[in-house]
């Protein structure tokens, strides 16, 4: 899969590409990431990519022409083929695992990284096929979002995770096939490793018991509990089994009867922290 990234900071991506999963996918030939300096698509001596906003206001806006030329040059490389052209912007649709799974089916993606106050709207209207945001927080450009999207898409490609199964399981398996965050709508259960006691903090007894049926039930219960407390939005529309329902009502009773501190009381000043 080929990613073409259009940016004024191509060097920004070097470290991301030189470590871990993306490095491995590049070396293994499952992914190819090409960096394009937006300034190479300007005509003036100063290699100008931005200008003042029509209508006034603070800051600068990316001019449409260099971005248009950069995308046209990429399209000219594979005439007649269509591929997604993604504009990263705070106004975009929210990036999700479902979108990563959709994008993974493409053999080529173009990612346009904006900066400053934004990008001339005609790019979103006439050049980009998708406009994507990675969340409701303010960044200063689309470079980190582009790197994030590449990471999440590349790890789904066959052969990248080493374990051929895990990518398959997460992206194609039927909902009943096994535990997986997001797709199956539950947060993960807690994980522990040795030592069984650390600083006086003990690993839950059940995990040392060797009773696999009990371990499975405990994990399911903890996943449900964490999701219910922290991300109740994920439970709407989630297919709960009878066992899940019993588990959640038991939890509800427990929380009503005892005075177990709620998740938010760890943060006295707010309450909305995740
Ligand atoms: C003054 C209004 N700002 C919007 C909240 C302007 C503005 C903020 C940040 C304009 C551009 C940017 C740069 N951000 C991105 O390019 C960006 C982004 C982000 O800031 N958050 C989440 N996802 C993304 S994708 C691209």
Give me the number of helical elements.
Answer: 9
Secondary-structure class? alpha/beta
Order of helices and strands: EHHEEEHEHEEHEHHEEHH
Distance between the termini: 35 Å
How many DSSP-defined strands? 10
Helix proportion: 25-40%
Explained architecture:
It contains 9 helices and 10 strands. The chain has 274 residues and is an alpha/beta fold. Mean pLDDT is 90; it is low at 171-181 and 270-274. Bound molecules: ligand 9D3. Residues 88-90, 114, 117-118, 133-135, 137-142, 145 line the site of ligand 9D3. Ligand 9D3 binds next to strand 5.
Chain-wise SSE layout:
Layout: E1 2-7, H1 14-17, H2 20-27, E2 32-37, E3 50-51, E4 61-62, H3 64-77, E5 85-94, H4 97-103, E6 108-113, E7 118-119, H5 121-126, E8 130-133, H6 143-154, H7 164-172, E9 197-198, E10 201-202, H8 212-230, H9 242-257
Helix pairs in contact: 8-9
Summarize, please.
This protein is α/β, with parallel strands linked by helices and 274 residues long.
Features:
binds ligand 9D3; 5-stranded parallel β-sheet; 274 residues; 9 helices; alpha/beta
């Amino acid at each position: 899969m080929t990613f073409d990234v259009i940016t004024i900071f191509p060097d920004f991506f070097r470290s991301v590409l030189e470590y871990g999963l993306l490095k491995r996918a590049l070396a293994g030939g499952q992914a190819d990431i090409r960096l394009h300096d937006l300034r190479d698509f300007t005509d003036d001596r100063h290699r100008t990519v931005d200008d003042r906003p029509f209508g006034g206001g603070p800051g600068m806006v990316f001019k449409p022409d260099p971005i248009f030329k950069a995308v046209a040059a990429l399209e000219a490389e594979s005439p007649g083929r269509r591929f997604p052209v993604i504009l990263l912007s705070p106004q975009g649709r929210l990036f999700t695992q479902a979108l990563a799974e959709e994008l993974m089916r493409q053999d080529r993606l173009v990612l346009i990284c904006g900066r400053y106050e934004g990008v001339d709207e005609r790019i979103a209207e006439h050049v980009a096929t998708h406009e994507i945001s990675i969340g409701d927080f303010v960044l200063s450009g689309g470079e980190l979002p582009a790197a994030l999207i590449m990471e999440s898409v590349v790890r789904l490609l066959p052969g990248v995770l080493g374990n051929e199964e895990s990518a398959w399981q997460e992206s194609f398996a039927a909902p009943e096939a096994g535990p997986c965050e997001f797709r199956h709508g539950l947060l993960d259960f807690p994980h522990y490793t040795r030592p069984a006691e650390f600083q006086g903090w003990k690993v839950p007894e059940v995990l040392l018991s060797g009773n696999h049926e009990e371990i499975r039930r405990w994990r399911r219960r903890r996943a449900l509990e964490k999701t219910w407390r922290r991300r109740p939005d994920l439970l709407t529309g989630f297919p709960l089994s009878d066992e899940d329902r019993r588990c959640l009502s038991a939890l509800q009773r427990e929380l009503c009867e005892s005075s177990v501190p709620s998740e938010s009381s760890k943060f006295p000043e707010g309450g909305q922290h995740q």
